[in-house]
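Why BamA/TamA family outer membrane protein? Reviewers of the renewal asked for a concrete example.
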Amino acid sequence: MPQPLPATAPAEAPPEEPAVTPYRARLVPTGDATLDGLLQAVSNLIALQEVAPTDAEGLAARIAAEPERLRPVTDSEGYWAARFAITQQGEAVEIRVTPGPLYTLRRITVEGSPAPELAAGQPARAEDVLAAEAALLTRLRQEGHPLARIERQATVDHPAQAMDLAFQVQPGPRADFADPVVTGTERVNPEVVRRVAALRLAERSYSPDRIARARADVAALGPFASVRIETGSALDAYGRLPVTINVRERPFRVISANAAYETNYGASLRFSWQHRNLLGGAENLRLDLEASRIGTDPDLLNARAALTWRQPLPFGWDGTLVGGPSVVRDRLISYDRNAFLFNLGYERRLGDRWTLTTGPTAEVGESAAPGNPLTPYQLAGWAFQARFDNADSLLDPRSGLRAQASVTPSYAFQASTAYLPLRVQGSTYFDITGNGRSILALRGVIGSLVNTTAPNVPPSQRFYSGGGGSVRGYDYQSIGPRTPQGQPAGGSSLVEGSIEWRQRFGESYGAVAFVDVGSVGTQSFAPMDAVRVGVGMGFRYYTGIGPIRADLAVPLIQQQGSGSFGFYVGIGQAF
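Here is what the prediction returned.
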């Protein structure tokens, strides 16, 4: 007999979700603008009112938790007796903070030396205390104390509205670096990494700056995606600080290409290929192919092909061997050139700041002023260069000095002339306010062809001025002597100078004002009556890798062959 089917239970209705309770949170000003800004940034009631709506129960939880979230802010600003009142009327939530009295530092005791730069009577702000402690620790480490420690105890006396601080400063011993140990290499010879880092570290006194420079040197080898330097927590049996360099390799073969377009000069293309570890010792072989003025008159095409070899620790010597051959076709406003070039330099660092480079140079080709028949030339020389650099940043220096001097005894076979191209340049930076936000930057260049004059050497060996890396506001190579046809002829001497004020605003923005001057002369020293002056202003947007630069400049002295203004964009400061 058929059995009756069981009755189907009615479907249960889904539970109703609690209704969202909209609200608008507002902080009542305390009278301290800095404190108000910090409270606004930390408040959950303000931050979540739009992005995370909640129901009545959730809102009540936020209100209850808000005082404990805000209290560290008032404490950090020295208001250790602050009171908090949060009220709700309909959708309006009012956050009222009564800071109370500003506490001050009373007794500061220090066991050991030196003492942090704090004084009784100053506001008891946590940020000031922590900054003074960090500055002291940095100072001790820069003085060669790698294991320096500072212990701090803070006591708040509410009736007296004061804070007492007790520091125990333990500088620890001064120490030298031990010979580095390398980990993480797979196909790169670790001995190359060890020796490159040891040039900065081994048997030298401890310094955070030396660690940073050693890391930069290892990273500059090329084969590594990351470089990390770790120091030991205790000295070894010889009283030295253990150092471990951990690297992670990256792909060794690299292909890159880029394209650009300028209204005046047409399109340009660049292709490069490189191998970052050709023989296993971080050797770098690079091929570059470039072409510019594409799409304009074919007779104006510029091209370059270059092969560059970079060899760390050549023949077992400390230092780097770098150079190679290149072929160029130049069609510039100052000269035409077809040439084969070769240079090879041995680069050796002396100490932390000095670098010396020397090696042979040679050039064989033909050149002439634009539109004239090309004439052959042959050059040979031996280059000497010295560089000094103690600036605090590559792309955005705020203090320090950079200087470079180069001299290349040369012989021009076509003219049977021995001569000496000499160039000295430098830049220095002054942090006027001490916080890195107002910088005065100065640059100077002097060049001279000793024992000859410009007509006796090929145009590519002469001095030119004007353009983004020179005197802004004037066209590239437009300053100096000219041919009877009005084209830049190049000179026998060069003088340039720049002064630039760099002012930063907020976290990411800045502006500059600058004056550039330059002169190119026909004799061994540039005549001052031929000086050209460019003035301008610029904008900076600061990123993690350096500032993005945009400068607008105008020439104060108009001249033939130069426009009425110049606009320049790049990465990093102008100098």
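The CA atoms of residues 273 and 453 lie 40 Å apart. This is the kind of structural detail the renewal will allow us to pursue systematically.
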